[in-house]
Design a protein that fits this description.
140 residues; 7 helices; mainly alpha
């Protein structure tokens, strides 16, 4: 199976939504499908792998997953990297590079059509907690 969306959805089926989808919870299969989706470029899967590693105390692996996910445009992971700088777990240089990649990724996804859709749906859209301040304040 080569679809990152299929792998990500299967990871959800074996994890979070196993009861609703009629399958037994299976952490090994969940992890397998997260890894497959991440290798195919799925930023959400990469973020989940970072959480998985963080929960197990593997901070370096978690940081790498979150940096890759943030570089692909995941705002939540950028926020995690920013908190890492504040706690001293991420260098300012790592944050600077990740922020640059994040901004480039976001810039590549902008279009007139997306902006129009965002304006039309704006009041119906739900945003994440607090958003991310991508200012250069941490880089001083």
């Amino acid at each position: 199976m080569g679809s990152r969306d299929a792998h990500y959805n299967l990871s959800l089926s074996y994890g979070l939504y196993h009861k609703e989808r009629g399958v037994e919870k299976n952490d090994k299969k969940k992890l397998y499908h997260l890894e497959e989706a991440a290798m195919l470029g799925d930023a959400a899967s990469r973020c989940e792998l970072g959480i998985y590693e963080s929960d197990r105390g593997n901070w370096d692996k978690a940081k790498k997953h979150w940096m890759l996910s943030a570089s692909a445009g995941c705002e939540g992971c950028l926020h995690r990297i920013k908190r890492g700088v504040q706690k001293g777990a991420v260098s300012k240089g790592e944050y600077k590079n990740t922020l640059r990649d994040y901004e480039e990724s976001i810039k590549l996804t902008k279009s007139v059509q997306r902006n129009m859709a965002k304006k039309m749906l704006g009041k119906h859209m739900v945003s994440g907690p607090g958003g991310v301040n991508t200012s250069k304040e941490l880089l001083k």
